[in-house]
Amino acid sequence: MVERTPILDFFSYAFLVLGIVVVGFPIYYCLVAATLPLSEVLKYPMPLIPGEKLLENIRAAVEKGHLETQLWNSFLMALGITVGKISVSIISAFAIVYFNFRIRMLAFWMIFMTLMLPVEIRILPTYEVAANLFSPFKSLFRIFNLEFGLDFSLLNTYSGLILPLVASATATFLFRQFFLTLPEELCEASKMDGATPMQFFWKIVFPLSKTNIAALFVIVFVTGWNQYLWPLLVTTEPSMDTIIVGVQHLIPKADQVPQWNVAMAGALVAMVPPIMVVLLMQRWFVKGLVEHEK
After folding, report:
1. Cα gap 19→10, rounded to integer Å
2. What three-state secondary structure class fits 117?
3. d(CA 263, CA 141)
4. How many other CB atoms are found less than 10 A from the CB of residue 271?
5. Which residues contact 104 (CB under 8 A, 6 or more apart)?
6. Fewer CB near the terminus (10 Å): N or C of the chain?
7. What is the distance between the alpha carbons of residues 135 and 39, in angstroms, rounded to a whole number?
8. Residue boundaries of the structural domains of the chain
9. How far, in Å, CA of 249 to CA of 241, rounded?
10. Cα-based distances in Å from 123 to 117, 229, 231
């Protein structure tokens, strides 16, 4: 029996519409500003009807901010972080659930406790590690007078953008919780068939985890794409800027003409890839979050 609650339904839809307006209006405002000429953007209030200068403003933003290089850097960083986090997390969760070693729960809780450490606390030691990780090798090469022109730092490299952000306690926890829902008979049956642990992982556990992987892929990719603080610290060369960092170069300075339409066009370009990922993987994303029958 389904109970009809028209008043509750009305307020539910009202709050839903209000949330959409609050979240969507800044995006719409950015879209409108990116389609208008500068004279229209500087008016007060700015018109809320889209114009015809979208392609022209996007072209100006790409040329001024070198967005094509920054888009490539952001894509490599986001994809590397996503693949790395999922790979490390699923293997870690598999080991914690299916391998009976003494400190497995201690290892899990040590991983889980990192959730209580915000990025701002970990940013300084992480930067120190990235900058001086291979310093002993550099000193060793100097002892033997070997110089190969190698850069022993992770700064201004794709490895520096990706590797320090690969570990994820959240993804490890989610995979662990999912593995605990799998029937123990699957593991026992694979042992009776003579399967090795990795064969059990690749042939049974991994295929059953595809919807969870898809859901995490969307979340982690969007999070990796939107990283700002870490790329800002670890890169100093303009050729290694990500688009989230590079958009700031389009923001007018005190002694420049305020071309807000070009800056909004650059911000709009930065929004497109994560939106496309969410739209293309929406079905898998929702399925991975709500599916209970495995």
Report:
1. 14
2. coil
3. 46
4. 16
5. 95, 96
6. N
7. 54
8. 68-250
9. 10
10. 10, 9, 11
Amino acid of residue 65? G
Listed in sequence order, the DSSP H helices in 66-153 are 67-98, 104-113, 119-132, 135-143
E strand residue ranges, the chain: none
* C-beta of residue 54 within 8 angstroms of C-beta of residue 265: yes
**How far is 141 from 187, CA to CA, in rounded Å?**
49
Region of residue 145 (left: phi > 0; alpha: psi -120 to 50; beta: else): left
User: Before 45, cis peptide (omega within 30)?
Assistant: yes
User: What is the SS3 assignment for 102?
Assistant: coil
Confidence (pTM)? 0.84
Angle at 48 between CA 47 and CA 54, to 5 degrees: 90
Dig out the tokens for 186 from the structure. 């699957």
* Rounded Cα–Cα distance for residues 234 and 236 (Å): 7
| Per-residue pLDDT in tens (0 to 9) along the chain, 294 residues | 456 677 888 888 899 999 999 988 988 998 999 898 888 888 888 888 888 888 898 898 888 878 888 999 999 999 999 999 999 999 999 998 888 888 888 888 888 888 787 777 888 888 888 888 766 555 555 554 445 445 567 888 888 899 888 887 888 888 988 898 888 888 888 888 888 888 999 988 998 888 889 888 999 999 999 998 899 889 888 888 899 988 888 877 767 777 888 889 999 999 999 999 988 888 877 776 665 544
Structure tokens at 240: 């290694």
User: How far is it, in rounded angstroms, from Cα 86 to Cα 219?
Assistant: 11
Token readout for 42 is 């500087």
Specify the 3-state DSSP secondary structure of 258. Answer: coil
Length of the chain: 294
